[in-house]
Write a structure and sequence with these properties.
There is one protein chain. The protein is mostly helical and 95 residues long. 38% of the residues lie in helices and 4% in strands. It contains three helices and two strands, in the order αααββ. The chain has helices at residues 5-14, 24-42, 73-79; strands at 83-84, 87-88. Strands 1-2 form a two-stranded antiparallel sheet. Strand 1 and strand 2 (87-88) form a beta hairpin. Helix 1 (5-14) crosses helix 2.
């Protein structure tokens, strides 16, 4: 598929992009190349290709989801200026 200068102008208008007149031909050439590549890729047979969750075929190194911190709630609330029913009371800042 080949795009013309008019096509590029229409696309730029729809995308609300300002492009210089001297760049229109190069944009048309680049966009046409991209569309040609997409056409070639859509014609490939991918029936035997398994879907991948990530482009790099590697396992993610994640740490175990285990809580390591102690619950210090009672210590923190003991030194808080105001606490009520287990909640911290703060001054009102919005009228």
């Amino acid at each position: 598929m080949s795009l013309t200068a008019d096509d590029v102008n229409k696309i730029a208008h729809l995308a609300r992009l300002g492009i210089e007149k001297q760049d229109i031909e190069s944009y048309a050439k680049d966009l046409s190349g991209i569309l040609d590549l997409m056409t070639q890729m859509s014609e490939l047979n991918t029936d035997d290709v398994e879907p991948m969750a990530h482009p790099m075929d590697q396992a993610q190194r994640l740490r175990a989801d285990v809580a390591t911190e102690q619950n210090n709630r009672e210590k923190f609330q003991a030194i808080a200026p105001q606490v009520e029913a287990g909640l911290y009371l703060v001054p009102k800042v919005i009228e």
